[in-house]
Write a structure and sequence with these properties.
mainly alpha; Hyaluronidase domain-like; 5 helices; globular
Length: about 160
Amino acid sequence: MSTERDRDAEGRARNARPRDALGRPLPYGAVGEERAPEGVVREPPDSLAEAQALLDAGRPFHAHEVLEDAWKSAPEAERQLWRGLAQLAVGLTHAARGNRRGAATLLDRGAGNIAHYVAQPPHGIDVAGLNRWGRELSAAASAGRELDVSPPRLRA
C-alpha cells in the first residue's frame, strides 16, 4: 500500500492543504489563507516587521513561520531568542484555537527562551515585555481564565 504525500520541488514532504488564519488545515480545494513562504532569509528588522503585521492581522501561525525562518538563519548567539519568539507565536496560536494546554506549554517555553536576552535585547525587541506577556498568558491558560489573544508588540 502506497501513501501519496504532497512534495515540494526538491521532493521533501510538504502538506499542500490550504490553511485558515490560525494554521488549521482545510480540505483540499478550499480557499485558505496565503501562507508565508518558507526558508526566506530576512534582515532582523524585516522579520520583526513582517511577523508583527501578521500578528496584528490575527495570523499568529503565519507569524511563527516568519520567526522560525529568522531562528534558522540567525547567528548562533541569537538563535534562542528567535526560537523563543517563534514559540510565543505558536503559543498565541494555540490560545486563539482554544487549546489551553498547548498555549500554556509553548508560551512558557518561549518566555523561558527569550529571558536570557532581557538585559541586552537586540534589534529593539521588547524582550522584557514579551517575557511578561508570555508568562501572564501562560498562567491564565493554566488557570482556566479567559484568554486575551490580542497580539503582543514585538518592539518597545
